């Protein structure tokens, strides 16, 4: 069976054990229609993996919004807010600030970043480290037990690190204006606009028409 035919089937079962990332793209997938279909399958895989991780964020955000609209909070509500505050690095259980952190990121932007960081799923960042966004600690690439863990770690970094406060502020402002989370309005707050990485990610997003995912 063709590689590009296998990818979606595996994605529907367990992207943690995604077999195609054990090897680089074989020579027969380097050109023509098969490369196009390989790329489409990798994009689908990335969408599936990201969507699965962000689904839980969306569930928690929905619950927090519901709690914020209550006149009085139950013990369960207070315990939940405290638990989420600890998870998202807040000392005080401030639901307003918590909602600024428990939030999604543009899917088109995230997909473009994964493609760029993993060279279409073929480099060691994904194959050996399960680190699709190239998260580093003290200058060293981190290793995760699964791709899910690697994705969740990056989203958590965006949602908690002081380095990305401007991203969170801009995202909150967009949502206050009932505007959608658009890649072109937020990418420059994650990657330096003058960097080569920014230009390459933007090129991928444009060439692969990923903006529709936002």
Taking the alpha carbons of the first and last residues, their distance comes to 32 Å
Total strand segments: 2
| Helix content percent band | 55-70%
CATH class division: Mainly Alpha
Main attributes?
214 residues, mainly alpha, Lysozyme, two-stranded antiparallel sheet, 2 strands, globular, disordered N terminus
How would you characterize the overall build of this protein?
This protein has one domain (39-213): Lysozyme, CATH 1.10.530.10. A two-stranded antiparallel ribbon has the order 1-2. 58% of the residues lie in helices and 2% in strands. Helix 2 runs antiparallel to helix 4, helix 2 (32-68) crosses helix 5 and helix 5 crosses helix 10. The protein contains 10 helices and 2 strands; from the N terminus they run ααααααββαααα. The chain is mainly alpha-helical and 214 residues long. Residues 1-31 have low confidence and may be disordered. It is globular, with a radius of gyration of 18 Å.
Brief characterization of the structure:
The chain has a single domain (39-213), classed as Lysozyme. The chain contains ten helices and two strands; from the N terminus they run H-H-H-H-H-H-E-E-H-H-H-H. It is globular.
């Amino acid at each position: 069976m063709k590689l590009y035919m296998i990818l979606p089937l595996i994605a529907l079962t367990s992207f943690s054990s995604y077999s195609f990332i054990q090897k680089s793209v074989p020579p027969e997938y380097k050109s023509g229609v098969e490369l196009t279909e390989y790329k489409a399958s990798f994009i689908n895989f990335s969408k599936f993996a990201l969507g699965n991780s962000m689904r839980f964020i969306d569930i928690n955000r929905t619950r927090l919004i519901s709690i914020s609209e209550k006149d009085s909070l139950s013990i369960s509500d207070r315990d939940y807010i405290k638990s989420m505050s600890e998870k998202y690095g807040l000392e005080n259980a401030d639901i307003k600030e918590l909602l600024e952190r428990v939030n999604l990121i543009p899917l088109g932007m995230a997909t473009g970043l994964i493609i760029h960081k993993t060279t279409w799923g073929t480099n060691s960042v994904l194959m050996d480290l399960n680190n699709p966004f190239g998260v580093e600690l003290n200058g060293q690439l981190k290793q995760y037990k699964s791709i899910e863990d690697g994705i969740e770690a990056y989203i958590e970094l965006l949602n908690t690190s002081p380095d990305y406060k401007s991203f969170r502020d801009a995202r909150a402002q967009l949502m206050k204006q009932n505007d959608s989370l658009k890649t072109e309005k937020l990418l420059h707050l994650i990657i330096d606009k003058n960097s080569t990485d920014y230009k390459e990610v933007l090129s991928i997003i444009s060439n692969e028409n990923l903006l529709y995912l936002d």
